[in-house]
Amino acid sequence: MSQRFMLDTNVVSHIMQGRDAALLARLTEVPVGQAVISSVTLAELEYGLQRKGQPVRLRNALTQVLLRMDVLPWDESVAVCYGEWCAVLEARGINLSDFDMMIAAHALALDATLVSRDKAFAQIAGRLKLQVW
Q1: Number of neighbouring beta carbons within 10 Å of residue 121
Q2: Helix (H, G, I), strand (E, B) or coil at 52
Q3: Three-class DSSP category at 3
Q4: Which domains does the chain have, with CATH numbers?
Q5: Residue 30 and residue 79: Cα distance in Å, rounded?
Q6: H/E element holding 35?
Q7: Rounded to two decimals, what is the model's pTM?
Q8: Which residues face 113 on adjacent strands?
Q9: Tens digit of pLDDT for each residue in 8-21?
Q10: What is the C-alpha radius of gyration for the chain, rounded to an integer number of angstroms?
Q11: Of 6, 52, 110, 115, which alpha carbon lies 20 to 30 A from 102's?
């Protein structure tokens, strides 16, 4: 199977803003179907839109993103990966936000590369494939 890239919420937000030419260029290098987002990322984006009063420009930008990327469901196998991995990290004294851990576990369970600009992920990058775009 081809390498999949799971885009974190902060990366999708930058894509939606449309002002980062280097990020947009990098995204165009990824074959169709290989850039995906977690349903957790979609939930965070929807929450952000609601908090901002549903600005039309951002709603349209999200719609465009969703036309080009699959939203993968957070299912039972991801939940098991999340539980196991959180327990291991907690025992090492590593704690990320719940949403960050859910997205990271989703990428890990699918053997996808997580694409993020969140520095917090650097502390768990050993087992998790991570790229900064």
Answers
A1: 21
A2: coil
A3: coil
A4: 5-131 (3.40.50.1010)
A5: 28
A6: strand 35-38
A7: 0.93
A8: 5
A9: 999 999 999 999 99
A10: 15
A11: 52
